[in-house]
Amino acid sequence: MDLCHVPANREKGWYLALMAPNVKGPNYAWLDPSRLYCHPQGLQDCVADLLQPFQGDPIDMVAGIDAMGFILGAAAAAVLQKGFLAIRKAGHLCVQTLAQPYTDYSGRGKVMEVRTDAISQGLRILLVDQWVETGGTMRAAIQLVEQLGGVVAGVAAICIEDSEGGRWIRERYKCAHCVPPRLQPRFDCHQ
């Protein structure tokens, strides 16, 4: 798809066609949204769709999850005119941090961390990542925010799959994603 072309009918999720399938094997996500981020209107519409359910909600800060969640999270923070907090893989922050172990979508054990001086009691945080597949990464981010006294105002991702972890998150937090209901089964089956 032409990175400058904008379709006449821009229904929710039109930009999902910009994503490219994985060609690197099972240790990588099945779709790569980085081409979507290169398309100016696609990125704007994606962020607008992610933020639409939170219109009028009190949000104090946006946190993006390492690494691709930084792109959507920072874009969402800019639109909302809020600060942005990076939730990092362990070892990348040179300040005092709180760490949380988790298992990612590929089954690998990892550790995520967040700076301890950015979240105060009751601060309402919108958590953003590019994808919620098994939910392990997002659950670790949720735990970090809540352990520091923050409140998860919502969870936003291009796709929140209908996995056990995805359902756990949807049952407990307000969520937004970009996949229209008619396409959700295809994304859950990685087609």
TrEMBL record:
Its GO biological process annotations read: purine ribonucleoside salvage
Its quaternary structure?
A: Homodimer.
The gene name reads: Apt1
The entry's protein name is adenine phosphoribosyltransferase
Q: Which organism is it from?
A: Corythaeola cristata
Which EC number(s) are documented for this chain?
Answer: 2.4.2.7
Q: What keywords appear on the UniProt entry?
A: Cytoplasm, Glycosyltransferase, Purine salvage, Transferase
Instruction: Read off the InterPro entries from this record.
Output: Adenine_PRTase (IPR050120), PRTase-like (IPR029057), PRTase_dom (IPR000836)
The reaction(s) this protein catalyses: AMP + diphosphate = 5-phospho-alpha-D-ribose 1-diphosphate + adenine
UniProt superkingdom: Eukaryota
Give the metabolic or biological pathway. Purine metabolism; AMP biosynthesis via salvage pathway; AMP from adenine: step 1/1
Family listed: Belongs to the purine/pyrimidine phosphoribosyltransferase family.
